[in-house]
Amino acid sequence: MLEVRNLSKSFGGVRVAHDISFAIEPGERRVILGPNGAGKTTLFNLLVGELAPTSGDILLDGKPINGLSVSERARAGLSRSYQKNNLFENLTIRENLMLAAAAGQRKTTGMFRDCFGDRKVRETVDEVAELVTLTEMLDKPVRSSSYGNRRQLEVGLALATRPRILLMDEPTSGVGPAMIDGFHRLLQSLPRNLTIGIIEHDLDLAFDVADRITVLNFGEIVFEGTPEETRGNKVVRDIYLGDWQSNA
Amino acid sequence: MFKQTRLRSVVLAATLTGLIAYCVMGGFYAREIVVEIAILAILAISLDVVAGFGGMVSLCHGAIMGIAAYAYGILTVKFGLPPLPSAVAAVAGAAVFGTVVGWITGRTSGIFFIMATLAFGQMAYTLIFKSQWLGGDDGMSGLPRFDLSWLGIKMGSSLTYGLFAIALTAAVYIAAAWVLRSAFGRTLGGIHANETRMKALGVNTILHRARAMGFSALLAGIAGIVAAQHTQFISPELLFWTISGEVLIVVILGGLGTLIGPVIGAVAFISLKHQVSGITDHWHIVVGLLLIVIVVAGGRGLYGQSEHWLAMRAGKAEDKTGDKSGDRGHA
């Protein structure tokens, strides 16, 4: 469904992604692991088109999408959430979700009808709000919302476009255990045919939700396999799981 | 995101009523002032749509108005076409020009957008200024007004024309308010608030910005038609960049991103001009000082500041238990 072939990216002499190749199958849940600075977010930026690769190809449904802009890739079904909240600060949570839902339903250009009054847009907003447990908060302005709610909205915006592939960049960064559990439940309630890529630091969550795990280090893929294989792999343990093993 | 609040509706109705009263009860001179206000208000509303709600500070709105006026002049005077279809075509032409400018400049933002629009405007000005066919700096005269005699309306009278200009101002405000609340307007607001995110959500922001410039230019074109028919004479001065600068001042004076603010700004600007210029030739100094005060006070403008005060007072009354967010955010 989403495939990457020999993808590399350098900023001058700094190599942030090197010869990355992988393929995510339809409906697969792929977790990307790796220490800070491994190039995980860079990889997402390359996938959605916010960065242009130095070399290599990105394929969606077998067709190269290198030439497509960010918005074209989004319209092709690729949606992402950000590691740092990237919201519409001066609007309410409802208005945020409405903008995303309207964009996903291509209701952005009509000059006569208000997309905020559109029944399908409202339905999507209600459904997504339920999924990310923001139903009670809908009319709160984002700027006076809690960090946790913003984190939920960050994922909500990506979901509200009704993507085919959802890429989430550390959706649980900075939130407490209760919210990580909530996120876990969210993942379980998402349709099984939705393809998901997650950058995640919470290893319990990662091992639990992943069909396959890709481990990055210094911009390269150092391991790919099932969660069980990942646990048992020595390279992975050395570079990333050392702490976790000793804590466990 | 635009909201047509009750306060805004009341202020709009009151302003229009005041203009109508001044137009009906005043003499020829008063009606000249009313038309002057109407032209400036329409142009300022048009600029606020892109500058206030899309973050696109254009310095070519005078030129867009002038292009519509000249297109109207060419079609009526040079080709002898009837006024109404000529006006429609002229406004459509302005919209096309605006869309093209918007599309080409859509990749730029901030100071670069300002400079790019300035360049487009000055190019149009120079082309018309140099054109012998269009009368060069002598301009073009003999432009007809709409012929509404079949409705029993004499457009030649200063009273009728004054009321016509006020009616168009109201129509333009309503059209702008309507579009800002449409799917298109909401999306424009989203792009203004967070362009990166709108792209990630799948919106072609450059194309959307171009459309916004096109719609704004359509409204600016209407100002051009009113101006052309008013004195029935046009000159390249209409397209000069200082006109665009003046409109921007009017928008900020009244309240950027409030839509009604530009109307208030136009009334204040023209009133000041006529009142103060009776006392001193340096009326621009007064406008300049007022502008500085407004910008230093937070840049909300005459209307925006008043709305802010009222909201603060209402907030204090309610604030016995509520939270103090202390926000100073404005559109």
Distance between the termini of chain B: 7 Å
Mean pLDDT of chain A: 91
Poorly predicted segments of chain B: 320-331
**SS content category of chain B:** mainly alpha
> Quick one: how many beta strands of chain A?
10
Spans of chain A of at least 5 consecutive residues whose pLDDT stays below 50 are none
- Which class best fits the helix and strand makeup of chain A? alpha/beta
Kindly report the spatial arrangement of strands forming the biggest sheet of chain A.
6-7-8-3-9-10
Q: According to CATH, what is the topology of the largest domain in chain A?
A: Rossmann fold
Domains of chain B (count) = 1
Number of strands of chain B: 2
Please write the string of helix (H) and strand (E) elements of chain B. Answer: HHHHHEHHHHEHHHH
Give the name of the CATH superfamily of the largest domain in chain A. P-loop containing nucleotide triphosphate hydrolases
Strand content of chain A: 15-25%
Cα-based radius of gyration of chain B, to the nearest Å: 20 Å
Q: Which two chains touch over the largest interface?
A: A-B, 39 and 30 residues
Tell me the overall shape of chain B.
Answer: globular
Give a quick precis of the structure.
The complex is a heterodimer of chains A (248) and B (331). Chain A is of the alpha/beta class and 248 residues long. Chain A has 9 helices and 10 strands.
Outline the secondary-structure elements.
The complex is a heterodimer of chains A (248) and B (331).
Chain A lengths: L1 E10 L2 E11 L4 E5 L6 H9 L6 E6 L2 E2 L5 H6 L2 E4 L11 H12 L14 H13 L15 H14 L4 E5 L7 H13 L5 E5 L3 H7 L2 E6 L2 E6 L1 H6 L1 H14 L1
Parallel strand pairs in A: 3-8, 3-9, 6-7, 7-8
Antiparallel strand pairs in A: 1-2, 1-4, 4-5, 9-10
Chain B lengths: L5 H20 L2 H27 L6 H18 L4 H23 L5 H20 L9 E2 L16 H23 L2 H11 L1 H6 L4 H27 L1 E2 L6 H14 L5 H17 L6 H14 L4 H18 L13
Antiparallel strand pairs in B: 1-2
Helix pairs in contact in B: 1-6, 2-6, 2-9, 2-10, 2-11, 3-4, 3-5, 3-9, 4-9, 6-9, 7-9, 10-11, 10-13, 11-12, 11-13
